Amino acid sequence: MFANVAGDIRAVKERDPAARSALEIVLCYSGLHAILAHRVNHWLWTHGLRMPARVFSQTAKVLTGIEIHPGARIGKGFFIDHGTGTVIGETAEVGDNCTLFHGVTLGGTGKETGKRHPTLADSVTIGAHAQIIGAIEIGEGSVVGAGAVVLDPVPDYCTVVGTKAYVVRRRGERVYDFRHDGQPRIENPEVERLRARLRAIEEELDALRSSCAPVEPLAEPTEDALVGV
After folding, report:
1. CB count, 10 Å around CB of 169?
2. For 84-111, what is each residue's pLDDT tens digit?
3. CA dihedral angle for residue 18, residue 30, residue 72, residue 4, rounded to 10 degrees
4. For residues 74 and 31, is the Cβ–Cβ distance under 8 A?
5. Backbone angles phi, psi at 124, to 5 degrees
6. How far apart are CA 159 and CA 173, in angstroms?
7. From CA 87, how far away is CA 38, in angstroms rounded?
8. Any long-range contacts for 102-108 (C-beta under 8 Å, 24+ apart)?
């Protein structure tokens, strides 16, 4: 547990340019206070002292503005920047070297039992006020944009944005262009699939047209033919 605490302090120092010293981090960072309290509360929870763990976690929530259920499993090098309004549910799992900003929710979808909260793989970054809902996995190295609502699993090394969130970058390569000088932004991936289907239909029609034999135009009647009539 103490090794994890040291890693949490280093994570703040490495990822926040405003952090000037370890002493400042220990005294002034509510995100660090919340995770330190959680390390203790999680130990109590896993050793059967669940009521004290819950009471102390609620106390930490009041003091820091960050709610972490003592049952949540959190890896080393965890950093909550600012953190006010962040909520992490009971069955959430967070890998090593993850970063959460304020207002993030790692939540469930209702009254289901068992595993019902998200799993973050290593080195995941979650932007401010993003909502990660349900027993889904956010892949290693992925980034969730601020305000995104994520209801489906995210592959490794992807960037997702929007409500509902969808992939815009995969392994460093842009797969969706939402710049103002590019193609018009499409909020719903279903619309993009319809556009792709329409393009396919147009290509099939072009192929059919090219495969048909050209029809010879009717010849104009001659003057003699008209006299004969």
Report:
1. 16
2. 999 999 999 999 999 999 999 999 987 7
3. 60
4. no
5. -90, 140
6. 10
7. 12
8. 102/128, 102/129, 103/128, 103/129, 103/130, 104/128, 104/129, 104/130, 104/131, 104/132, 105/130, 105/131, 105/132, 105/133, 106/72, 106/132, 107/131, 107/132, 107/133, 108/133, 108/134, 108/135
Structure tokens at 139: 């892949």
Q: Which residue has the tokens 């390390």?
A: 39
Q: What is the pLDDT of residues 18-63, one digit of tens each?
A: 998 989 999 999 999 999 999 999 999 999 999 999 999 999 999 9
Give me the residues paired with residue 68 across strands. 88
Rg (CA), the chain: 29
pLDDT at 56: 97
Average pLDDT on 176-199 reads 69
Report the alpha-carbon distance of residue 227 to residue 11 in Å, rounded: 100
Structure tokens at 19: 């952090």
Instruction: Quickly tell me which residue has 């960072």 as its tokens.
Output: 29
